[in-house]
User: Fold this.
Amino acid sequence: MSTEYTIPGEFKSAVEGKCPRCRKGNMFRAPLLSFKSKKMYEQCPHCDLKFEKEPGYFYVAMYVSYAFIVAQLVASCVATYVLTGNLESPWLYLSVAVGVAILLAPFNYRYSRIVLMYWLTPQFKFQGKHFLKSKEL
Ligand SMILES: [Zn+2]
Assistant:
């Protein structure tokens, strides 16, 4: 009898907010669509990876977040133009932009950190030994 392990894919783990090193522990204390969704663990509950690897590390996530919001604002304003054909009122575009920015703020906050940790921090690569390690033992 052999034991089989299914290691979750990188993209799937990122979408689910799992630790980039072990892909098992959660990075955030609560799901995305909850009022406590901003609370983050200091260390991975499974492999003890320290998420904020140095002071100010998460400031870098602001640049990722900036890229997200620019893409979202351009997309939402183009969509507004395509749907309404309005070229007269700046208020329509302004209210759409503000609404989109507020609605997507929790998403941007979470996924800017996830993108930073998964794809912009080489030290946080997946390591199979941490995936196989069992915390319960
Ligand atoms: Zn971990």
Q: What stands out?
A: The chain has one domain: 10-132. DSSP finds five helices and no strands in the chain. Residues 19, 21-22, 25, 44, 46-47, 49, 130 surround zinc ion (CB under 6 Å). Residues 102 and 108 are 10 Å apart (CA to CA).
